[in-house]
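DM between two lab members

TW: hey, do you still have the Benzoate dioxygenase, ferredoxin reductase component entry open?
JB: yeah, one sec
JB: this one, 337 aa:
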Amino acid sequence: MHKVALNFEDGVTRFIQTLPGETVADAAYRSGLNIPMDCRDGACGTCKCHCESGTYEMDGYIDDALSDQEAEQQYVLTCCMVPASDCVVTVPASSEVCVRSQQADVHGELKEVRRLSESTIGFTVAGDQVRAMHFLPGQYVNVQVPGSDQSRAYSFSSMVDPEAESVSFLIRAVPNGLMSTYMAEQAQIGEKLTLRGPYGSFYLRDIKRPVLMLAGGTGLAPFLAMLEKIRDTGTDYPVHLIYGVTNDCDLVELDKLEAFADQIEHFTFTACVASEQSEWPHKGYVTHHIEPGHLNDGEVDIYLCGPPPMVEAVNGFMTEKRIEPVSFHYEKFAASH
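TW: and the structure you got?
JB:
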C-alpha cells in the first residue's frame, strides 16, 4: 500500500492510499475523487497528470494518449499508473471539478442539424434536462448514437441557452462514421438523444494574463463555448484565437468569431488554411501564425485543441522558441468511426 498526494491546480492537496496493484485513478475514485477521465484503459489521455516524485509502473496505454517524450518527462495516465512507492501527482484540474459525483444520463431532443461544410456538421440538443446541465466551457460529453449502444465524445460548442433550453456541438463528417452518418442521413428533428458527462480537464480557467487559443478543425468547438463565457463575464486581458483547417471549405462559424470580435473588447482571431491550393489570405499551419506578441515572453495561458499531429507540432514549436507558458492546457482528439 502506498500513499499518493494529489496536488490540484487550485492549491488543494488530497491524500489517497492505493491497494496493491491498484491504479491511482481507481484509488482516487474509491476515496471520493474523480480524476478527469473517460476511457479508463489508456486510450484517451484525459486522465493525464504529472508525477512530481515517486516510482510507479505504467503499461497498456497507446501513444496517442501519452507520447514517449511525455512519459520520459514523468507525465502519467492515472488510469494505468500503479505506484511502487509513495508518490506526489499534480492534477491539471481544480479540486472542485474532481469531487466525485455520479454521472447521470441527460435526455434531450434533437432540435437542429446544420451541414456547415463538407467536413463539419453542427447539431443542437434541447429539453428540460439539458437546461439544468452544469459544465465548464471546454468540457465534453459522450453522446449516444441513436439506434446503437455506442457513443461518441463531443465538446460543447455553446453554453446552455436558458431560453431555448439547448446546447450545441460541432462534429467532423467522417466517411462512414457512425454519428456523422446518422446526422447527415438519418436524423429526425425531435428524436431522442442521450448525453452523459461532463468530462475533461480542458476548460477555461480564470483569466489572469493574456490568453492564446489554438484550434484545429472541429477543435474550434470548445473555444466557441469559452468565448461565450468570456463575452458574458468580460476580461481585461487580450485573448487571441488562431483557427486552422486543411481546406478553404473546412472553415466554419466565422460569422460567430466575427461577432465575438465585436462583442469582446480584447478578442482577436486569425483563421488559416494549410492547403497550398487555398485562396484564403492566411495560409499555412497554426504555428506559422503565432507571433511573439501572442506569447508575451511566456506570460501567457495557452489552450490547444486539435488532432495529435497538431498538438505535437505546437509542442515542438514551443520547445524551439524556448517558451514556457504559465499554463498550457490541451486536448487532442482523433476522428471516431
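TW: got it. The two ends are 41 Å apart (CA to CA). The domain at 2-91 is CATH 3.10.20.30 (Ubiquitin-like (UB roll)).
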